[in-house]
Amino acid sequence: MAAEVNERALIRKIALRTLPLILLSYFVAIMDRGNISFAAATMNADLGFSETIYGVGASAFFLGYALFEVPSNLLLARFGARLWLARIMLTWGVISILTAFVHTPWQFYVMRFALGVAEAGFYPGVILYLSTWFPGGHRAWAVSRFYIALPLATITMGMVAAPLLALHGAVGLHGWQWLLVAEGLPSVLLAVVLIAALPDRPGTAPWLDAAEKTWIENALTQEACAAGAPSHNLRRALTNPYVLLLGSANALNFLAINAIIFSAPKMLAQSTGWDVAGVGRIIAGSGLVMIVCMLLAGRITGQGVARTLATFAGLMLAAAAGLAMAWLAGSAPGSIAGFIVFIAAAQTAGMLPLAVLSRLIPASDRPAGLAMGNTIAQAGAFFGPVTWGVLADATGSYTLGEALLIPVALMAAATAMIVRVRSLRMG
Fold first, then answer.
1. pLDDT classification of 416: cutoffs 50, 70, 90
2. What kind of fold does domain 7-426 have according to CATH?
3. CA trace torsion 211, 16, 355, 224 (10° rounding)
4. pLDDT on residue 109
5. Strand, coil or helix: what is 16?
6. How far apart are CA 92 and CA 115, in angstroms?
7. pLDDT higher than threshold 50 for residue 209
8. Do residues 265 and 38 make contact, with C-beta atoms less than 8 angstroms apart?
9. Residue 1 in this model has a pLDDT that exceeds 50
10. Nearest to 248 by CA among 159, 355, 381, 115
11. What are the DSSP calls for 286-298, one per residue?
12. Alpha helix ranges (H) inside 148-275
């Protein structure tokens, strides 16, 4: 007779063995991706960069990320998560450090593009990795737990940016150079830890017994059958309607997020009159609100695809409301509240589409399908900062950009509801 397996206890065991390392890895990824927003407070002036130059450089990351997303995820499926995620972390850490030594716009563009190439495949690779450990009913919960790294990184960046910028002049380096170097080093060190400690798949995990491995295999097999027959066709996997629709929903979301997030310190300083330390506290506060939102979303979205998509749509409506609040605000409190509502809602929504997609497409199609979904999303992320920078230079403020992003958030909500209706009809 087969041994009984306590499902909740098994999921907790897997979570404790895998999620802390994944969370820490995503934490340093967000730090290395977003630290340029705080560096810009003094870097742009030191190097003579306009808002447009900075916006193009911030966007170049997403161009490199999007172009190499699919091949990176296919290589992860071939070589295993442990080795490939460690490779990703090592290269992005080195490039993040080297970005501290750019002098010209083109050097800035090249390093940001290279950082995107280095990090390509990380997030969909993690979703793919989790899909081999957590059955669909637990996957949104697992994603919400590692995605907490995003607000934790936001809080940390908000708190450490001012002290690192204050190192200006030490060893002949600018403060923004200290910031980029100090926040790039942990990625290099963590790459070694991943190789030593991250298990590739349940079948190779020595801390799972035979009954537990069988239970996971059976649960994932049942889910694969429910998703339909595998296409065994790369083109078909890449053009799956769910891939295109969910990728587009997140593209609209990321367009709005990245338009604002890379200029958030300067934008908040302009609307409040506060210094870097004060603005850092606002951004850290938004991270605390994000944590609450993500934990709540993770709790309510595990019940099914339709509920998860409805949650995404609701969060994007809240994001649009936050943008409207910031746009209409005539005071510092209104601008702060609008920013926090927008960023907490939109960033929480961003963790949901790939988790849903991993349940709607066959297991054999996930490496290409998840990567393609995130490639489409990163294309939206590319247009955000560059468009935002051009508008800021043209108008002298961020007001027009805030107004134009409101319909973008509403379109993301509408796209999610289209997917929800389609998934319910397909049964």
1. very high
2. Growth Hormone; Chain: A; (1.20.1250)
3. -10
4. 95
5. helix
6. 6
7. yes
8. yes
9. no
10. 381
11. HHHHHHHHHHHHH
12. 149-165, 175-197, 210-227, 234-238, 241-261, 264-272
Round to whole Å and give the CA distance between 282 and 294. 18
Instruction: Check: CB of residue 256 under 8 Å from CB of residue 349.
Output: no
By the 8 A CB rule, do 108 and 116 touch? no
Q: Which residue has the tokens 């409301």?
A: 321
Measured between alpha carbons, how far is 103 from 106 in angstroms, rounded to an integer? 9
**Nearest one of 209, 239, 421, 256 to 350, comparing CA atoms:** 256
Q: For 232, which DSSP code?
A: -
Query: What's the rounded Cα separation, in Å, for the pair 282 and 270?
Result: 13
Q: What is the pLDDT of residues 15-37, one digit of tens each?
A: 998 899 889 988 988 888 888 88
At 329 the three-state DSSP class reads: coil
Percentage with pLDDT > 90 across the chain: 25
What's the mean pLDDT in 204-231? 77
pLDDT digits (tens, 9 = 90+) for 109-119: 999 999 999 88
pTM value?
0.77
- Mark residue 369 as left, alpha or beta (left: phi above 0; alpha: psi -120 to 50; beta: remaining): alpha
Angle, CA 292 vertex, CA 145 and CA 351 arms, to 5°: 45
Q: What six digits make up the tokens of 425?
A: 């009809």
In this predicted structure, the answer to whether residue 233 has a pLDDT above a threshold of 70 is no
Distance of CA 210 to the CA centre of its chain: 35
